[in-house]
Amino acid sequence: MPLNTAFCISQAMNRVNPATTNREELLQSCALHGLITVQNVEQIIGGKASSQPFSKAQKTLLLQQYRAGSQQPEALVARLGDLDGNVCAYAEALADVRLFSGQIAVRHRH
Fold it and tell me: 71 and which of 37, 66, 98, 103 could share a cystine (Cβ 3.0–4.6 Å)?
């Protein structure tokens, strides 16, 4: 196998416990950002992916949902912990929401 992104990610995943639930999510995130293909995900996990490929969140769509009242700032904060490869879009949308509406009280988990 040539030394490419898919090979490097495959080698790294060999060091991760196959029973780890976040393993496939990490691979799906890599596919979302074009680092590997969905076929690479299936090759690395050794079978069919158990979840659908992730879709890329768009900051502009998240902001439209916020302005329409269907997306709450707290929901954006909650999504920051998701492992779906979209944390940047959530963080950027949240920053813009803060500009629109002033400070948002966010409670940090301890």
Answer: 66
